Input
Amino acid sequence: MCGIFGCIMKDGKVAPTIHAALKRLEYRGYDSVGEATIDDGKLYVKKDTGKIDEVHERCNLDDLPGRIGIGHTRWATHGAPFQVNAHPHFGCSDPPRIAVVHNGIIENFAELRKELEDAGHLFRSKTDTEVIPHLIEEMLNSRQFAATVNIDSEFINATIAAIGRLQGSYALAIVSTMDPGRIVCARNESPLVLGIADDALYFASDVTAFLPLTNKVIFVENGEFVVLGEDLLEIRRLADGNPISRKTKLVDWSPGMAEKQGYPHFMLKEIHEQPRCLRNTLRLQNKYLGLLPTFLDRAREVIMVACGTSYHACLAASYMFSKLSFLATYPVIASEFAEQHGKSVNIDSTILAVSQSGETADTLSAVETARQRAATILGLTNVVGSTLTRISRVYIGQQSGPEIGVAATKTFTSQLSVLSQLAIQLAKRRGKISQEEIDLLEEKIENIPDIVEGIIETQEEKMRALARKYKTKQSFFFLGRGISYATALEGSLKLMEIAYIPSLAFPAGESKHGPISLITQGFPVIFVCPPDETRRTVVGNIMEMKARGASIIAICEEDDEDIKKLVDDYVEIKRGIPGVLSPIPYVVPLQLFAYYMAIERGCDPDMPRNLAKSVTVK
Ligand code: F6R
Output
């Protein structure tokens, strides 16, 4: 999740305005920053790695001439956070004639890059974005475009034709010395909003960027492009160039609310971002998804190390690897790793370390122990450039964008999505399940973002109502069998950490070996019960709890009438999710429940006491 911004001003210099706006967008990404302005027909650029203040101190971001410019704050997806990968990106021409900033993921960048390299283009970076300026150049050089958008500018016509070849998500802005008075922006899936003031026009990833300057906004929709110039604002359809008229809206958000895009807390915003983040995980390049299974396949033992929520993702993944790829893997809590496996791990061991931040001290310490004994280190993280990415032999970036709320939500479901794709890839490689099953799983995984969107739309109010009903309870049980044990653990951790309610999660079958003694009349028990092979026995466990007076909430499939009849309250999940993928949608109501319990009990869900987003001490 990067941030883009740009503006055209009637007077003055845009660079300080871009710098200040990028600072307001820094929460969207902060590993590199860059600006490009145009003045007197020339393109001026500054870009480097580091947080905005660090880059500004090194190279004074305010010191660029011109009244027109674009800027970018980066969250690395393709290519590590090196200067060469920072935006803006250029084509081949020297000095550069085209500069592009981009938020999103170009899915077909590998094919486009190959095609452009074959045509003689030289690439400098490892980013997906760099294909865009080269593609525009190629369109102009080979005159492969028609003036479909009917604008009197070859540059703009070529740019729209180039955008037409992009697949994936993007909010883009492009400037060129060939048309020095205009900015072209375009949107597909990634957010883009325009700001209108008397003396300037702005565009940005979100209104936070220009809120101190104007509250008059126009939201750009998918499949649209915008041409901005002095006294010019045209919105058109990418497909045919037809103009669109859209009214300006006034937003009355405070800067704090704008950063949260109108949500009261980052945690709720991030829960709502899950469909988009899950779609991003489906855009991971095959070359990354293919490489990890190669290592997993040839390992003598695979140990997954992580802490907290990331450990729950590993636990769920151990069921996925076992069920789909017939590979036994061992999820281990990172702080226990050295004691438990420190002596046995060796050159034949493969460690898959999972860490949202890539900086958790316990995880890094486990990795270091394994590294010293020559084990192979693989990583899954949200922060490209983090320590974990530097010490892993191979890593995958999960591309969720920064997570600000201390409780992990969107990063957990994205971890699960990546891990399930790895398990499917490994299953293919090992020939363990049929093509038919693989096709079905791949189809289901594609549907998950929509299903999660549906859960948020239809079940959020219900979770709020359940939180009101259960807010005075002193403790909770979360139970699930099989892979749903991981979902139960995650639901329990969320409730505990942000609503401060002691809660226990157990494999449902284990509950009768001790924990059941806690059950008294009205004790709340949340059952995670997707309709997989465990369902029949879970019904038995529900009966055991019910017989002892527990109040039961079930997370179950929408037409599971038997369970619905049995329990006090239920939350419905759309039918048809295979059990092995169920933690992704089934955890979402539990995240919402924890959030609304925190609100009902007057707790701040974004900043739970005693916790830090990244725990860098052992
Ligand atoms: C819980 C939570 C923590 C983290 C844990 C590991 O909501 O966020 O339990 O999951 O501290 O952090 P990472 O994944 O950054 O290693």
